[in-house]
Amino acid sequence: MFERTEYPRPQFRREKWLSLNGTWECAFDDSGEGDRLGYWTGKRELPLSINVPFSYEYPASGIGDTSPHEVVWYRRKFHAEGMDGRALLCFNGADYQTDVWVNGIHASSHTGGFTPFSVDVTELLQEGENVLVVRCKDSPNDAVPRGKQSWTGKPFACWYTPTTGIWQSVWLEFFGEDCVKDYSLFPDFDRLAFYGEVASLRGKADRLEIAASFRGELLTRQSVSLRGGRTEYCVHLPRSFTSDYAWTPEKPQLIDVTFSLYCGEVRVDHATTRFGMKKIAVDAYGRICLNGRPYYQRLILDQGYWRESGLTPPSKEALREDIVLAKEMGFNGARKHQKLEDPYYYYYAEELGFLTWCELPSAYRYCAEEAAALTQEWQRMVCIARNQTSNVCYVPLNESWGVKEIVSDPSERAFARSLYYLTKALAPDAVVSTNDGFEIVGPTDVVGIHDYDAEKEEDFAKYEARLDGLHPQGFALFAPGEKYAGQPVLLTEFGGRAFSKDAADGAWGYSGNAENEEAFLKQLASLMQGVAASDFQGYCYTQLTDVQQEVNGLLTQDRRPKADIKRIRKIFLQEKE
Question: Cβ(189)–Cβ(279) under 8 Å?
Fold first, then answer.
């Protein structure tokens, strides 16, 4: 049986917590009778059993039913004895409209499938047994963020079996009279400091204490008054702590930070996090720089799907192994495609030294509903991603998905620009690729090009001249009226080669299929010679693993390499045999 029993949010830990993952009751509510039948009261047993946090469509849930069920109810009992203080009920992800009841009382509503949420349920708990009920509604609506989840009732093209309902961890954690509701933490590389804002949940705490340490040695401690439950802070590190301690993929050094809230002299909340001292920016010469130096990005497209569990990682170790395998193949980062990943992915990326790109899961029908839904989810995602040391680029739109008339519709171009400026407002050091791939609208900090038609070195020659007027894959690289303005240029999707034996019965890869390992490696080497000969500042190869019908990964769905990893590494690093 698949289990997720670890503390679910490693980048902001509290000491006292209770996992609510594991076996729950559940029911499909295709007729919409659940409310009338009183499922929300918690007094009625539900007929099915499901393994949370895995969605019912995948075998890890214990169900594996791929037919659509738009409404799913969940029920489980729990005891919270021995856990002192107030109780925060936390969800890392539930898709799409979620309602929560505790002991028959409505506790919370949340809309959005990819971001976490929580609610203080202290007053709703009782001595002894408690009953938690959750209802998730997830219709095949193409105007809300879906990412790579099909909305047609079955997988098609590069869209896959959906993920419905609870798909990430659920847990309770405990605190005193107040706790940190949200926070930001930005490194200031040039001044050897870090800064941000902290907000408390109940507005009762009057003081915030921040401590920073490195390898177990305290660097500094600082107290800040809380006004109205919110405060800004700036912590300077000792002069002896120089930029030699900066975070890079080659040397991922991390600074531990604790946030403690006080009501008077009583500590009411204590949480730990960490960050790396880094600076990502585009310099005056149009180069992406890490810590003031040009840095070439060798990325892998990673969609974060598993055969048995879909979007939900089967374990935290599985996430770590994906990063380890990618690094072994020569990559120094990943573009997490159409997904905000499980928190452990970014935790290990920080620890192992691995860059990440944050991308908004697309909707596919532009209208007022889509604009509102994408904006809301993107705002939440950016507020999470900005605290992740590994994150170096934000992608609000991909290949004009959800804005398919961006070339001709001024409102869609205005929407793209609004997402750029929203990102900058929330993450001041953000590097943004506004519409990655083609039909690019400014402003954008990065020009990301997608080209699956290029198969050999000479196919990349067109990128050595002016970019204006190019049509990769038949689409205009820039929307009408837009011109190249000296931004860094990266080849952010290409490759996607499959083996002929895998590309059958509806399974597929891009361009020509390889008959065997040697043919595949020869094709790959030709591709990478073309990339190396072009003036790109990085690339993102498609892709890390096979995903359902899309069989163009360097690894199978079960993470088995399709070719010798050492030879793959030499090709991507452009090392001679």
Answer: yes
**This model's pTM is above 0.85:** yes
| 539 in any annotated domain | yes
Distance between alpha carbon 553 and the CA centroid of its chain, in Å? 20
Please check whether residue 287 lies inside any domain of the structure. no
* 483 secondary structure, DSSP code: -
Asked whether residue 375 is domain-assigned, the answer is yes
Phi, psi of 482 (to 5 degrees): -100, 145
How many structural domains is the chain composed of?
3
What distance in Å separates the CA atoms of residue 185 and residue 257, rounded to the nearest whole number?
Answer: 10
Would you place residue 240 in the very low, low, confident or very high pLDDT band (cuts 50, 70, 90)?
confident
399: phi then psi, degrees, rounded to nearest 5? 50, 35
Task: Reply yes or no on whether the pLDDT at 341 is more than 70.
Answer: yes
Answer yes or no: do 150 and 187 share one domain. no
Percent of the chain with pLDDT over 90: 93
Same domain, 165 and 252: no
pLDDT of 243 over the 70 cut: no
For the stretch 124-172, pLDDT in tens is 999 999 999 999 999 999 999 999 999 999 999 999 999 999 999 999 9
Q: Which of 74-78, 441-445, 517-521, 571-575 shows the lowest per-residue confidence on average (mean pLDDT)?
A: 571-575
CATH number of the domain to which 103 belongs? 2.60.120.260
Same-domain pairing of 256 and 315:
no
Encoded tokens for 471 = 């049509």
Alpha-carbon distance of 548 to 546, in angstroms, equals: 6
Domain that holds residue 119: 17-175
Q: Which amino acid, residue 460?
A: F
Q: Is residue 27 part of a domain?
A: yes
